[in-house]
TrEMBL record:
The keyword Iron-sulfur does not apply. It comes from Thalassococcus arenae. One of its GO terms (molecular function) is hydrolase activity. The keyword Hydrolase applies. This is Alpha/beta fold hydrolase. InterPro entries: DUF900_hydrolase (IPR010297), UCP033909 (IPR014586). Keywords: Hydrolase.
Length: 333
């Protein structure tokens, strides 16, 4: 019982008692040596000024909305940035020489969004689509993708699908329901990106976002959207919070099955330990101990269990540990 109590305390503590991050928008403000990382956003979060009082009081969007909204952010990454980190202002005034800030924000309609992607990725075949996980607000989704794109030297346009997570440790069930709600929006986005004249899409998903990706790809396959699935450049699921049996049934319906298909796992993932406890199973897909359970499914597993550094609970090692960033960057080139 003590172990159970300790684990539940851990999940309530993430990401800590400090105030959650928000986007610091400083139009036109930059610092010498700062790097501008463009990040495109597609979201089905309802802006807070249009929403009723939310359950979790998130500034932008735990409230679900069937309408997709689009934006482009120019995220300024400070010259002293450390790999794996997001340098938040915290209680300080935002300073582009020290912190992540937004130097420009453009809200777009769908047509302008697709045209801006074409302009941003001239000469590129692919785009990267990032689907965040549980307990993530809109600012965290945008800044995390900027950090990933910068640290992994991404030379292609990057898009965050910012679905309406509660952005609260106590919103686990709310987030699982939001995953189901958000499948249609993710399908709409994928169809727009892979349509005539579109690009190939590399999908990177984290934690509960992996469930959203698998459910959406399964839905598209069943709905006869195989042409769009064939335009995927690959899928990477990082610390996937999915039941292994469910994953196998999802994968069985996805045709064509995207290639390459990577699973990044760790036996040191304490968040997935809690998720497994809550579901009554010994483990989740992201902490799989017996890969033979996946049979002949064409997936490649990257085990990060022995990689040092990163977040203390081992749930975001792939993009918070400098050692993991170097390993993955070298492995996937």
């Amino acid at each position: 019982m003590l172990r159970v109590v300790l684990m539940l305390c851990l999940i309530v503590a993430v990401p800590g008692c400090a105030a959650r991050g928000v986007l610091s928008i400083l139009p036109g403000v930059t610092a010498p040596g700062a790097v501008i990382q463009p990040v495109f956003i597609a979201t089905n979060r309802l802006p807070s000024q249009q929403a009723e009082t939310g359950l979790f009081q998130q500034r932008f969007g735990e409230t679900r909305d069937p309408t997709l909204r689009y934006a482009r952010l120019d995220v300024s990454i400070p010259p002293g940035h450390l790999p794996g980190r997001i340098e938040w202002p915290g209680g300080q005034l935002p300073d582009p020489s020290q912190h992540f800030v937004v130097a420009q924000e453009d809200r777009l309609d769908r047509g302008d969004f697709l045209r801006a992607l074409q302009t941003a990725g001239a000469g590129q075949v692919d785009v990267l689509l990032f689907v965040h996980g549980y307990n993530v607000n809109n600012a965290e989704a945008a800044y995390r993708l900027a950090q990933i794109a910068h640290d992994f030297d991404a030379d292609l346009p990057v898009i965050a699908y910012s679905w309406p997570s509660a952005g609260s440790p106590r919103g686990y069930v709310y987030d699982r329901d939001s995953v189901i709600f958000s499948r249609d929006g993710l399908e709409e986005l994928l169809l727009a990106l892979t349509g005539p004249g579109g690009r190939r899409v590399l999908i990177v998903a984290h934690s509960m976002g992996s469930q959203l990706v698998m459910e959406t790809l399964r839905q598209m396959a069943i709905g006869g959207k195989g042409t769009a699935l064939s335009r995927l450049a690959g899928v990477a699921l990082i610390s996937p919070d999915i039941d292994e049996d469910v994953f196998l049934r999802q994968a069985a319906r996805i045709q064509p099955f995207p290639q390459p298909f990577l699973l990044m796992v760790s036996s040191r993932d304490r968040i997935l330990d809690v998720s497994a406890f809550l579901t009554g199973k010994p483990s989740r897909l992201g902490s799989i101990e017996n890969p033979t359970r996946l049979g002949d499914l064409p997936v490649e597993i990257i085990d990060l269990s022995t990689v040092e550094g990163g977040d203390r609970l081992g749930h975001s090692t792939a993009f918070t540990s400098p050692a993991a960033i170097t390993l993955i960057r070298d492995t996937t080139r």
